[in-house]
């Protein structure tokens, strides 16, 4: 750690001890650099362009939803036998993406992985926005979404209660708890940074706005002590929570007796898939973002390598899951299970299955090569392919399992309609709308946590 | 619930409060975390107890130096989790067994394994709320006004400056002496803080 004059940060060859942060940074430069993105930097044309596109797509979602409310669920392609189409698929896809944020912010905190500090704020925001998209699908899938409050146990004049033996009820509790806890975790993490912004903001409205959000935070040692404890406890709570959420999402399928759903491997394989998809999304978003905002000193190549490695590891677990699914089908000796696997590989949707294998098992193998991990364009493309692959995985699970089950007389095909796609593209727009607002108005890197990993933060006795 | 002054032994019969000067205390500004921690240790060792440090990021050594190492937050969170877990299970038990029993495939009304996921989620939910609200309440936040915000350079406490305050209601507080002491501890500046 040397004290040099500030110069553009360039990295030497990568080692496992490579710095997780540009060693030339100081308390002042970290604070000023991150807060100026929010406070001083002129909003760029690229931001407006990106926001405008996202916002336009968001309108598509509102259109699709309004139409759905007027016409009904028949607008979507779902029908018996495929009563869960890409809408439940998208729910699982979005919520899976969200899981990487919690993993980075909570699990890596408990494991004392200091490199998480630069990316946890952003990843948590991604979690929150992805869960917001996910939550809308099951609600609008209800048929009469305006009665969604019936899912919650409240004393009512109808004298009825929800059925707690159903995984769908577990899902309501898991997803709403997850959304609430993620939001609290995120907000608590932001409080000291709101105080930083309050003290740096030049204009009165922003001073008042950030001041209210900071709630009078003044960096008192007593406050910090309790704060650190609360943050640690929240991380400890969020860790089993995130594992439970995707486990319960997998129960939506695994508790049913449909061949292709009724498998004990589902919970761990869903959780690994969620982390896999989530890291792909974090990479997909951070690679352009760090370039655009010049954050190479904060989010270093070591972060990229670490995330690529997590992606590779979880990708291998997911690959193991696919192999086991096929093995279970064969080993069960059950003709319906065997047919299900045969149908996935050779049936009308076989193209999806093989595309999934290509995207999710074969593509990430390139990440073994250090050169490819160091090439940001290659990493971005692989992340993009993995995101598509994880979407295909849920398509294979949801659609191909349902479309041919026990009775050949009830077999059928599924075709998403333009409204299914509008809703999906619309939620992508909504996700990016929220993300663009986030990077413009809130510090996308946790300022106070960055200060703690600076060399000058060490107290010399 | 802890209070910030439980370690004080008021020896002057409590009369100092009535005659206390209309000031919050004296605050010293430091350039580095090491200076702040060293100063806090020194001030604490001289018997001052109503002292507090202000820093842009959490410094573990600092809360030890000012003698603040205990917080009841873990207990609050534990109780919250317990309430959430037991409450979550009892809610399901009451609904599925007592108030609205439905026979599903011959399963027992109290099919407790099916109640575990929601019991777990409720545990986490209530514990997380206890952690966040407990932290805010113990810290007495939101608190829009606080005397230390009057310190001229205090906006730097969220950037790269470190502060140590000795509060006027400390039993040992003596204005000239405290100012002298803080000045001798490598402080950049020493200021009075008005209430």
Total beta strand runs of chain B: 4
Largest sheet features of chain B: 4 strands, antiparallel
Structural class of chain A: mainly alpha
What's the mean pLDDT score of chain B? 89
> Mind telling me the C-alpha Rg of chain B?
25 Å
- Helix count from the secondary structure assignment of chain B: 5
**Portion of residues within helices of chain A:** 55-70%
Question: What is the distance, rounded to the nearest whole angstrom, between the alpha carbons of the first and last residues of chain B?
Answer: 25 Å
Contiguous helical run count of chain A: 15
- Helix content bin of chain B: 40-55%
Helix and strand sequence of chain B: EHEHHHEHE
The poorly predicted ranges of chain A are: 1-7
Q: How widely separated are the two ends of chain A?
A: 19 Å
Largest inter-chain interface?
A: A-B, 67 and 70 residues
- Indicate the radius of gyration of chain A in whole angstroms: 23 Å
| Beta-strand percent range of chain A | under 5%
So what's the overall shape of chain B?
rod-shaped
Average pLDDT for all residues of chain A: 91
Count of the separate structural domains of chain A: 1
Strand content of chain B: 5-15%
């Amino acid at each position: 750690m040397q004290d040099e004059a500030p110069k553009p940060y360039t990295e030497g060859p990568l080692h496992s001890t490579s710095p997780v942060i540009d060693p030339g940074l100081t308390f002042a430069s970290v604070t000023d650099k991150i807060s100026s993105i929010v406070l001083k930097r002129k909003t760029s044309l690229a931001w407006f362009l990106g926001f405008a596109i996202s916002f336009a797509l968001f309108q598509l979602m509102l259109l699709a939803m309004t139409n759905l409310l007027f016409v009904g669920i028949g607008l979507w392609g779902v029908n018996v036998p495929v009563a869960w189409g890409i809408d439940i698929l998208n729910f699982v896809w979005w919520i899976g993406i969200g899981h990487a944020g919690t993993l980075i912010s909570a699990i890596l905190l408990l494991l004392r992985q200091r490199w998480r500090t630069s990316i946890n704020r952003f990843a948590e925001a991604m979690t929150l926005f992805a869960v917001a998209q996910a939550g809308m699908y099951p609600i609008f899938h209800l048929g009469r979404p305006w009665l969604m409050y019936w899912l919650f146990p409240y004393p009512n004049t109808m004298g009825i209660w929800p059925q707690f033996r159903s995984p769908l009820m577990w899902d309501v509790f898991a997803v709403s708890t997850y959304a609430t806890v993620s939001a609290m975790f995120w907000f608590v993490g932001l409080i000291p940074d709101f105080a930083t912004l309050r003290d740096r903001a030049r204009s009165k409205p922003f001073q008042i706005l950030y001041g209210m959000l900071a709630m009078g935070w003044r960096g008192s040692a007593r406050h910090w002590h309790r704060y650190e404890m609360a943050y640690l406890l929240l991380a400890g709570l969020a860790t089993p929570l995130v594992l439970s959420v995707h486990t319960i999402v997998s129960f939506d399928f695994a508790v049913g007796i449909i061949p292709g759903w009724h498998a004990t491997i589902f919970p761990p394989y869903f959780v690994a898939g969620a982390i896999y998809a989530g890291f792909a999304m974090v990479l997909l978003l951070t690679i352009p973002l760090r370039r655009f905002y010049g954050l190479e000193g904060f989010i270093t190549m070591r972060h990229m390598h670490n995330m690529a490695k997590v992606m590779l590891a979880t990708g291998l677990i997911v690959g193991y899951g696919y192999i086991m699914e096929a093995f279970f089908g064969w080993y069960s000796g059950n003709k319906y299970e065997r047919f299900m696997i045969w149908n996935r590989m050779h049936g009308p949707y076989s193209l999806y299955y093989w595309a999934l294998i290509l995207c999710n098992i074969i593509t990430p193998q390139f990440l073994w090569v250090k050169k490819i991990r160091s090439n940001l364009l290659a990493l971005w493309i692989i992340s993009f392919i993995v995101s598509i692959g994880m979407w295909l995985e849920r398509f294979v699970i949801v659609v191909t399992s349902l479309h041919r089950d026990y009775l050949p007389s009830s077999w059928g095909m599924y075709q998403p309609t333009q409204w299914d796609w509008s809703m999906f593209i619309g939620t992508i727009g909504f996700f990016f709308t929220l993300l663009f607002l986030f990077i413009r108005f809130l510090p996308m890197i946790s300022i106070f946590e960055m200060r703690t990993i600076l060399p000058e933060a060490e107290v010399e006795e | 619930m802890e209070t910030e002054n439980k370690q004080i032994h008021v020896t002057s019969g409590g009369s100092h409060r009535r005659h206390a000067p209309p000031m919050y205390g004296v605050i010293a500004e430091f350039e580095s975390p090491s200076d702040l921690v060293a100063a806090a240790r020194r001030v604490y060792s001289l018997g001052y107890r109503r002292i507090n440090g202000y820093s842009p990021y959490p410094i573990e050594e600092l809360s030890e130096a000012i003698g603040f190492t205990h917080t009841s937050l873990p207990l609050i969170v534990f109780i919250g989790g317990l309430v959430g877990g037991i409450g979550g299970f009892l809610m399901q038990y009451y609904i599925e067994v007592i108030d609205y029993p439905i026979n599903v495939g011959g399963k027992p009304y109290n099919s407790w394994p099916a109640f575990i996921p929601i019991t777990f989620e409720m545990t986490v939910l209530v514990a997380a709320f206890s952690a966040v609200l407990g932290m805010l309440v113990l810290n007495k936040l939101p608190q829009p006004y606080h005397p230390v915000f009057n310190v001229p350079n205090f906006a730097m406490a969220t950037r790269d400056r470190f502060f140590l305050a000795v509060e006027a209601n400390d039993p040992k507080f003596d204005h000239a002496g405290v100012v002298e002491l803080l000045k001798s501890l490598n402080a950049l500046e020493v200021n009075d803080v008005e209430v």
